[in-house]
Specification:
205 residues, mainly alpha, Arp2/3 complex 21 kDa subunit ARPC3, two-stranded antiparallel ribbon, 9 helices, 2 strands, 73% helix, CbiM/NikMN, Putative metal transport protein HI_1621, transmembrane, membrane
Length: 205
């Protein structure tokens, strides 16, 4: 899902960077002291999961676990993903610094959106909770792929074909993301519900 440097046009890069900054600022303001460990651990999980990737044109197909970050962290998914992407750019040259903002936005924004859309299901028990978490994992990946494909398409017609390949390559990954998110979220809801973003919002009234 990382877009490489030297691919996107200036306006697309600037737009993505501005949106990423806004999301990160909101995310930092929403982080509670008790959430810091969860943010760090999920940032590490994102970092490791997205290291195993398959090149697809100018981008890569791989797990990102953004839906899981969304359902557990809410808005804090923005700074969590940003930190992981910075480390990947520094240590392994994945993505790059010029596309850092755009890559952060395309992965974090869908995670936060899905959290709020499926929050009623996440708050329930049993199959409804699993279905809501699965939907978050699946849809977050789908929306990220669509945003990435859209960024490529906006850059020029030459990238439209690559955008279509990117979407197709991520379809099986979306199902895997949904299953992982469903199982991990339902487990956390049973053993450590206070760590979840749904619980944090409830505490704030």
């Amino acid at each position: 899902m990382h877009i490489s440097e030297g691919v996107l046009s200036g306006p697309v890069l600037l737009g993505g960077a501005g949106l990423a900054v806004a999301g990160t600022v909101i995310g930092l303001k929403r982080i509670d002291y008790d959430q810091i460990m969860s943010v760090a651990m999920l940032s590490a999980a994102f970092f490791i999961a997205s290291l195993v990737h398959v090149p697809v044109g100018p981008a890569n197909a791989h797990l990102i676990l953004s839906g899981l970050l969304g359902v557990v962290l809410g808005w804090a998914a923005f700074p969590s993903i940003l930190v992981a992407l910075v480390l990947q750019a520094v240590l392994f040259q994945f993505g790059g610094f010029t596309v850092l903002g755009l890559n952060t936005f395309t992965m974090a924004a869908p995670a936060v959106l899905c959290f709020y859309v499926f929050k009623p299901m996440l708050s329930k028990d049993g199959a409804n909770r699993f279905a809501g978490a699965f939907a978050c994992g699946f849809m977050a990946m789908l929306l990220s792929a669509l945003l990435t494909a859209g960024a490529l398409a906006l850059t020029g017609e030459a990238f439209v074909g690559a955008a279509k390949v990117l979407l197709a390559a991520h379809l099986p990954v979306m199902v895997i993301e949904g299953v992982i998110t469903g199982f991990v979220y339902t487990f956390l809801a049973k053993v450590k519900p206070e760590a979840l973003a749904v619980s944090s919002l409830a505490d704030r009234g």
